[in-house]
C-alpha cells in the first residue's frame, strides 16, 4: 500500500519540503553512535550504546532496506515523501550505510577497546592466551562448544548451508589434493560470544568465541589444509508478509510466517576484512548479493553482541550508577486503591516513577473479590511478567478476564504466541484484534462492584507496553483513572477489538484508524485559527517518529499562521524545519540519552484553554492508518501541567543530550548552536529551573534528581508558555500572522473539564 493510499490524500506540497525518511533513520543511528563516543558517559555504558547502534543498523537492513529491495523487485515506482523512487533511495543508502558501519567499527577498535584495556577489561586473541588458561579454554571447547558444531564442506552433495539471520558463522578456505573448497561453521545462538579468561585480581579478560573456534578448526576439518578463516554474518529480510483474509487463524498464520522469515532473502553480508577476496566472492555469489551489500569490517562482525560484555562485567564503577524510581504505593489493600482512584486521577512518568502502581492495579483486579472483569491489550511483555501472572490468577478466581494479544509485534511474535497459549490454558479469553490491523494501544479496564453497590469501571491508559523490564529503560506515561467518560470510551475500544463495533463519534478517546489522524489535524488547525485571531497559540509535541504527510502539512500551515511549534522527535522525521515562509516557526529536537525516549504527548495552548493529550501512536502512517491506537486527554489541571512541564518544556531546556534538526536534514548538538538558539534554550531553562545553571542541563538527569527529592522544578505560569521565546536566527524571514502581531496572553483560565477534580 502506498502512502497516498494509506492517507487518502495526495501531496499538497512539493517533495522539496520533506526529508527522506531513510536518511533520517540513518541519522538517528548516528546519534546513538555519538553516545558511544561521548566521554562523559561511563565506559561500559558507551559499549552498550555501540551495541545498540549496531542493533539499530541491523533492523534498518532487516526492515527498511529489505522493504526497498522487495519494492524494486516488484517494479514499484511510487516515490517517498521526498520524491525518491525505491531504487533512488537504495542508491543513497549505499554510501551512507557503509560510512556508518565503518564509523561503528572505528569506535570499537580505536576508542572503546583501548579504553577498556586501560581499565583492565581486555579483549584477547588466541595468541595472547597461554599456559593454564589455554588448557582450560581448550577443555571448554571440547566439552561445551565442539558438540554443538556441525562442520560443512560445500560440494555437490553438500550445498551451501543457509546461515541463520544475524547468526555468527565461520568460513574456511580449505585445500585437499590441490583442490580448494569452502568450509562453513554456524555458531549456535546458545554459545556465549565472549568466553571469560582467568585474569589477575581486579581485571576482566575475555576471548571472542570465534577466536576459540578458529584455533581448533583444523581438528574439525582434519582431512583438509586450512588456508584461511574469517567470520561472517548474514542479515535477512525480516518483514512478515501476511494474508489475513485467507488465514484460518491469526496464530497459525503468524507462526508459519515467522518460520518463513528465518529463510528470508539475505540483504547484507558482514565479513571480516581480513578474508581473502576469493572467499568473499564465493560467499557473495552463494548469497545472491550485489557488491554494495558486502560489508568488510574488522572483527567482531557482530557488534550487537557487545551487549553481552556490558551485562557480564562486574565493574559497576564503569556503568551508570543505580537509581531508584520515585516510590508510590497507591494503597495497601485493593479496595483502598480503587477508592483512591475515585478521588482523582493518578499520573506516572516512568522510569522516574515506579511501575509498581500499574502492576498493583492489575494485581488488585485479580485478588479483589469485588472485581468482576478485567480486559487488557498486550503488545510486548516481559519473561517473568507479574501482569501475566495477575491475569492467570484472576481467571483462576472465576473472574471474566480477557486479553487482546497482538501476535504481529515485530520480533516478539513467538513470545506472544507462547503467552497466548499459556493464558488460554489458564482460562483467560484471548483475542487477536482485527484483521489487517495491529493492536498497539495500551489499555486495561477493570469492572468492580464497589462498596456502595455501584458497578464502576477503572482504567489504565499508557504510552508504553505492559512490560516491567522496559518500564525501567524507556520513558513513558501511565494514567490511572475512574473518569466515567474515559472508562466508557475504553470499553468501546475493547468492544471494537473483539466484536468490530464502530468507534463512537463522540468518544473521549481518539482512536486510530477511525479518527485519530483527523482529530490531530483538526486540533492543529484550531491552533492556527487561534493564532490568526490573536489568541494564545502554542504547540508542543513529542513522539518517536513523524512521517505523516497530512499532519506535516498541517504543522506547516500552523507555522505560517503564526503558531510557535516545538517538536521533540526522537527518531525518523520527514518534516523540514526552518524553511522561510513555510516552517520558520517550527523547531525539531531529538533527545538521545540514558533512557529511550518513548513517550508520545502533545500540548495545545488552545486560546488559553490548555489541552494535553498522551498517546500510544507516533505520527506515522503505520500508526495512524494500520494500527489500533488511542490518544487520551489529561484532564486534571495539575497533571496537565506536569506533562507540559516535565515531558515537553524541560526537554526543550536540555543542552546536553539534545540535537537540533537543520533544514537540510543534518542534526547538530544544541550546545553548538548559534547564540540566538542558545538564548531560546536558556529561556526554557529559566522556565523549568528558575535560572540558567552554570553547568549543562540534561532533562533525564534533572528528572532523576527530582524523583529522589534532590531538586524541585519551578512552577510555570501558562502565560510564560504562550509567550514566544527570544527570536531565533532566521525567524524574521516569516511574515507576521494575519491580523497583526499576537499580544501577550493574559488569560489564566483552567483547562476545560477540570473543575472539581482533585490533583
Blueprint (SSEs and pairs):
Elements: H1 3-7, H2 21-36, H3 43-73, H4 86-118, E1 121-123, H5 131-145, E2 152-153, E3 168-176, E4 179-186, E5 194-197, E6 204-208, H6 209-215, H7 217-220, E7 225-236, H8 250-261, E8 266-272, H9 277-287, E9 294-297, H10 306-312, H11 334-343, E10 346-350, H12 356-367, E11 371-378, H13 386-396, E12 400-405, H14 413-425, E13 429-431, E14 438-439, E15 442-449, E16 455-462, E17 474-481, H15 484-499, E18 510-512, H16 516-532, E19 538-543, H17 549-561, E20 564-569, E21 586-591, E22 596-597, E23 601-604, E24 611-615, H18 621-626, E25 627-633, H19 637-652, E26 658-661, E27 667-669, H20 675-689, H21 699-707, H22 718-722
Parallel strand pairs: 1-6, 8-9, 11-12, 12-13, 14-25, 17-22, 19-20, 20-21
Antiparallel strand pairs: 2-4, 3-4, 3-7, 5-6, 7-8, 10-17, 11-15, 15-16, 16-17, 18-25, 19-23, 21-26, 23-24, 24-25, 26-27
Helix pairs in contact: 2-3, 2-4, 3-4, 3-10, 11-12, 12-13, 16-17, 19-20
Could you characterize the architecture of this molecule?
- The protein has 22 helices and 27 strands.
- Strand 19, helix 17 and strand 20 (564-569) form a beta-alpha-beta unit.
- Helix 11 (334-343) packs across helix 12 (356-367) and helix 19 (637-652) packs antiparallel against helix 20 (675-689).
- The protein is of the alpha/beta class and 759 residues long.
- Mean pLDDT is 88; it is low at 1-11, 242-262 and 729-759.
- Strands 14, 18, 19, 20, 21, 23, 24, 25, 26 and 27 form a ten-stranded mixed β-sheet that branches. Strands 10, 11, 12, 13, 15, 16, 17 and 22 form an eight-stranded mixed β-sheet that branches. It has a six-stranded mixed β-sheet with strand order 2-4-3-7-8-9, with helices on both faces.
